[in-house]
Design a protein that fits this description.
It is built from 14 helices and 14 strands. The chain has about 450 residues and is an alpha/beta fold. It binds beta-D-glucopyranose (BGC).
Length: about 450
């Protein structure tokens, strides 16, 4: 572990983080750029956004990302994760758009000029229509196509970027697209297809990893894994289904990267991909919280698990037709312990809560910091924390219903308003630590402990 100053004497109520801890925010192209033309634009045109909203100009980043970069600089933020939209860069198969690559160069330069380290993600749920139409990551040649795209990007902006995330949440992409039918292509109950998608993505990850390293030798390349705690209500059947969901959702992609094969029993059907094994320079973790799980014969689509959020637990705003999830800071510990098995540095690449009125976000941030600080003190190699997100953005099939920003956005007027969490996060970043309120247990007033 790097040399740290967090053990040095400090007031008991102040938790200091290691020197050079990377404090930042995360974003995604489709959610912030506006006017994209990809498979999610088709999903929206087909009326699949549950709130009925349209993405429109989103946060207007394609025209003016610099406005939000100024805000990030003013908050003292040191790193910003953004994704580069494949459909802009390669709108037709095999033909790359120099103007789009130039705009991304401009954005990355703008971040550097503001003293902000860019972290580039290559696939955050969206890709070109032509790629979707030919079967996306179900097709065996997808790794070649992803590698070709990656190479063009690394050639164009490799000098401006040290940190690379190949995929954002391959587990969410596969589960929502092929099992739950909530994301394009909207398939339901196709578990074997979802596993195949992840295996092909793992191969594509390796090819992208190598392509980036060939062009940018000092690059650090990883992926961002979504991790959810599945908490079983008491009872054996409940524990069994919770652990099944945990294995399928949390561990599939970890297993692939760690061992080169799917976990038992699926690994028996397919061989090991030796090239995949251990292929990453860091592990990114996206951690939001916890779901509760009970065995339920009526819930066939979710493997006979009723996945729910009890009313009394801390949580942010609900989605269009269901709660978003329990805001559960301890989820970070579980995720970090799982990721540590890979023996690579860990970055929290996303964490946040939908909370338009900022009622619970400050509590979440402070308590996540406590978890992180304790984990680092125990020796876990956690190098950074990126909050989701800077400015409210277009929340996939929930549209504008869920607001995750440190900064509130009115998408009509593009007016931005600081939430109090922005001030809190800025203090944490500037102080490289967090003041812990003395009035424990630090839960939101409206919340009672279970
Ligand atoms: C995704 C983001 C999303 C956030 C909040 C993450 O799983 O990567 O794109 O906005 O969760 O739901």
């Amino acid at each position: 572990m790097s040399e740290v100053d967090f053990r040095s004497p400090s007031p008991e109520s102040y938790l200091r983080f290691p020197k050079d801890f990377l404090w930042g925010v995360s974003t995604a192209a489709h959610q912030v750029e506006g006017d994209n033309s990809n498979q999610w634009s088709d999903w929206e045109l087909a009326g699949r956004i549950k709130s009925g909203d349209s993405c429109g100009k989103a946060c207007d980043w394609w025209e003016n990302a610099e406005r939000d970069f100024d805000i990030a600089r003013d908050l003292g933020i040191k790193a910003l994760r953004l994704s580069l939209e494949w459909s802009r860069i390669e709108p037709e198969e095999g033909s790359f758009d120099p103007a789009a690559l130039q705009r991304y160069r401009q954005m990355l330069e703008a971040l550097h000029q503001r003293g902000i380290e860019p972290i580039v993600c290559l696939h955050h749920f969206t890709h070109p229509r032509w790629f979707e139409q030919r079967g996306a990551f179900l097709r065996p040649d997808a790794p070649e196509l992803f590698e070709r795209f990656t190479r063009e990007v690394a050639k164009a902006v490799g000098d401006l970027c040290r940190f690379w995330v190949t995929y954002n949440e391959p587990n969410v992409y596969a589960a929502c697209g092929y099992v739950l039918g909530e994301f394009p292509p909207g398939r339901k109950g196709q578990l074997l297809k979802a596993l195949r998608v992840n295996r092909i993505q793992a191969r594509a990850h390796v090819r992208a990893y190598r392509a980036i390293h060939a062009l940018v030798p000092e690059a650090k390349v990883g992926w961002a894994q979504h991790y959810v705690v599945f908490e079983a209500v008491p009872g054996m059947a409940n524990r069994w289904v919770a652990s099944l969901l945990d294995r399928l959702f949390n561990h599939t992609f970890f297993d692939l990267i760690e061992t080169g094969r799917l976990g038992f029993p699926f690994g028996l059907l397919n061989g090991r991909d030796n090239e995949v094994k251990g292929c990453c320079d860091f592990v990114g973790l996206n951690v939001y919280g916890r779901f509760h799980v009970a065995f339920d014969l009526r819930s066939a689509r979710t493997f006979f698990a009723n996945v729910f959020v009890p009313e009394h637990v801390p949580q942010g705003d609900p989605g269009v037709d269901r709660p978003y999830g329990e805001a559960y800071p301890r989820a970070i510990s579980e995720a970090v312990q799982r990721a540590a098995g890979l023996g690579k540095p860990i970055y929290i690449m996303e964490n946040g809560v939908p909370d338009a009125e900022d009622q619970i976000r400050p509590w979440l941030i402070v308590n996540v910091m406590r978890e992180l600080h304790a984990l680092i003190a125990q020796g876990y190699d956690i190098r950074g924390y990126l909050h989701w997100t800077l400015t409210d953005n277009f929340e996939w099939n929930e549209g504008w219903k869920l607001r995750f920003g440190l900064v509130a956005l009115d998408p009509e007027t593009q007016q931005r308003t600081m939430r109090s969490s922005a001030k809190l996060f800025s203090e944490i970043v500037r102080g490289n630590g967090v003041a812990i309120p003395m009035d424990e247990p630090c839960l939101p007033l409206s919340t009672t402990l279970p």
